[in-house]
Amino acid sequence: MVMEEKKKLTLAQQTAEMVEWLASFGGSKSGGVTRLLYSESWKLAQEALKARMEEASLHAYYDDAGNLFGRLEGSQKEGRAILTGSHIDTVVNGGKYDGAYGIIAGVLALKYLHEHYGRPKKTIEVVSLCEEEGSRFPMTYWGSGSMTGLRSFDDVYLLKDQEGTTFIEAMEKSGFGKGKYQHPGTAHFDCFIELHIEQGEVLERENKSIGVVSHIVGQRRYNVTVNGESNHAGTTPMKWRKDAMNTASALIQVLMEKSKRMPADLVVTVGQMIVEPNIPNVIPNKVTFSIDIRHSDSDIIQSFCQEAFESFEGLARERGTSLDIHKWMDEQPIKMCENLNELSTTILQTEGTSFKEMTSGAGHDSQVFGQFIPTSLLFVPSHKGISHSPHEFTKTEDLEKGINLLIKILHKLAY
Ligand code: HGY
Ligand code: MN
Ligand code: MN
């Protein structure tokens, strides 16, 4: 679709077109989207977004981690810029909106502001953050983490994906990490505003258009590796086995049973399991499974992990197996910026748009930026609360309400 035609489209039509367009990068026949960090579909999406940013009269540029920025230069040379955006990577077979919506909202908001108000006083930038999910390598928030210093290049070089490709190989193959672009940083940003789908169904159930997030829950992720002994499924008596799967299933039951005795808003998920040698007639000698634990109070997360892991060692020993427990993510609960939230709620009250102040059970790049610069996270409803799935859906009119709010916030802050 050429630029001229795009200009005549309404904001709602541009939004709907851009959602489908971006979802085509890594899109599958099942309607899911898979765009993993530094993969071919990730690279094509970033390159295509760069062109869209330039079409929208933004100055587009990368940093050395592969974060892509679109800048609407302000007339005031001094002073720091306002940043908006979200992450371009997805989970495997995820939805069209998680991360992508925040980038689309930023590009269309800056395009609208430039077309209707010309040059701002303060510079505004939209960022397509290279990675947030932790779907390819065992590490999350690489985009926002590399910008804020929460993650360093040293942390990631030797990480490997499930195919055995190292992080540095993948990064360099997609053209980053070699010093060709500026080093990631947040030095010239004043604040960060992220639009995101709720990924829950509170807004839809309560018929509210916007979620203004007050806090994001704390989140920990572990990989637990059980080491046993492979052997013949037919000739090895049960009492002689060192069965890594038997132990893993006992440990997972401990987690699920223990969670029933914890506050209802503690959530624990075992989402990934790697079995070796993963053959029906061989007793597994190694099972690695992930644990994702979240709660708004980090002391509750700590006590849950401590008590659960205490029983792990004994259960493993009883079954002739041993354990390695590796914590690879530990983000504290964080409060969002009250001033920015007040700006949003004032705009919403004035225009009569329904909203709800709420906690986020999902982690977001705002959880990282919020540790360094004033940050605001704003939700639009997810149909039936479904996310991380091809069935993720948000109505265009809800997407548009979020973008209109972003336009008003940025206009207030930058013009
Ligand atoms: O897992 C999460 O909370 C987010 O979608 N990365
Ligand atoms: Mn996600
Ligand atoms: Mn997300």
From TrEMBL:
GO molecular function: hydrolase activity, acting on carbon-nitrogen (but not peptide) bonds, in linear amidines; metal ion binding
Ranges for domain Peptidase M20 dimerisation: 218-300
Similarity comment text for this entry: Belongs to the peptidase M20 family.
Residues that coordinate or bind allantoate: 221, 281, 294
Entry binding sites for Zn(2+) 2: 98, 133, 388
Protein's name in the database: Allantoate amidohydrolase
Coiled-coil intervals: none
NCBIfam families xrefs: hydantase, PRK09290.1-1, PRK09290.1-5
Amino-acid positions noted as binding Zn(2+) 1 in the UniProt annotation, renumbered to this chain: 87, 98, 196
Cofactor note: Binds 2 Zn(2+) ions per subunit.
PANTHER family reported for this sequence: ALLANTOATE AMIDOHYDROLASE, ALLANTOATE DEIMINASE-RELATED
Pfam families named among the record's database cross-references: M20_dimer, Peptidase_M20
Keyword entries, A-Z: Hydrolase, Metal-binding, Zinc
Cofactor: Zn(2+)
Organism the protein comes from: Priestia endophytica
